[in-house]
Amino acid sequence: MKKYKEFIKSIAIVMGTQAIIYFLVKSFITNYNVMNSIMNIPLIKGFVYFYDSWYPVVLLTAFIIYKHDKNSYYNLTFTMILGAFLSHITFIIYPTMVLRPSIEVNTLTDFILDFTYKTDTPAVNCLPSVHCLYCFILSYYTLRSKNLNFTYKIFIIIYHTLIILSTLFIWQHIIEDTILAFIYAAIAITIVSIFKEKIKKVLGFIF
Questions:
Q1: What pTM value is reported for the model?
Q2: Which residue, 164, 136, 145, 140, is CA-closest to 67?
C-alpha cells in the first residue's frame, strides 16, 4: 500500500472532490431545463453493465497510467480537475435534466437498469456528461503515452468508447451531453498542455 500511497492520495482527491461538489450542486438547484435530443437513440438495456463499471474502470485506467507513465499521470489528474471544474460551473449556470423511461423488471438486466435509475433520480446535471468527460481525458492520455503497450491502449480505448456509448443507449444522457464533454475535455487538455509547469507548482501539494 505504501508503494502506491501517492496514487491513492491523488486519485482520492480527484474523484472525491468531484463527487462531493456534484452532490452539493445537486442539493441546491431546483429548476432544471429538461433536455430533448436532436437524435433518437434506441434504449439498449445491456449497455448498463458498461455504464455501471465506470468508477472501477476510471480508477484502473488512472492506475495503469500512473504505474507506467507518471509524467502523463500528473497531467491527467490536473486535466480531470479542470474538466470537472468547467462541468460544475455549467451545471450551476445551466442545470439540465434528462427524462428516462419506466422499466418493467423481468430480467437481471432490467433489475440492474432500474436500480441504476433509482440511485440517480432525478437524472440531473447532465450537460456535459462527466462519465464521458473522464473517458475522453483518460483515452487521450492513454493514446499519447509512450510507455503503455499497444494491447493496453486498444483495450482501454475500446472499453471507454463502450462506456461513452452506454450513457446514450441507456438514456442517462443525450448526444449533446457527450459533445460538450468532448469539447470540455479538449479545452482542459489544451490548457494543461500549455501551462503544465505552472500548474504543477501551484497544485504540487496534491502529490
A1: 0.89
A2: 145
